[in-house]
Amino acid sequence: MRKFRGLLFLALLVKLMAQEVAAQEPSHAAAQPIVIRAGTLIDGKSDQSRRDQVIVIRGNRIESVSDGASAKIPSGATVIDLSNATVLPGLIDSHTHIFLQGEDPAKGGYDANILMQPLALRAARATVSARRALEQGFTTLRDLETEGAGYGDVGIKEAVEAGYIPGPRLLVSTRAISTTGGYPLEGYAPELDMPKGAQIVDGPVEARKAAREQLDHGADWIKVYMTHRSWVGKNGELASQPTLTVEELRAIVDETHGWGKKVACHAYSGTGLHRALDGGCDSIEHGLDLDDAAVAQMLKQGTWYVPTISVYYTDWAPADTPNGQRDRLRASAHEISFKKALKAKMKIVFGTDMGGIPWTEPIAQEFSHMVDFGMSPMDAIQSATSRAAVMLDMEGKIGVVVPGALADIIAVDGDPLRDIKVLEKVDFVMKDGSVFRSK
Ligand SMILES: [Zn+2]
Question: Residue 142: enclosing H or E segment and its boundaries?
Answer without folding.
Answer: strand 138-143
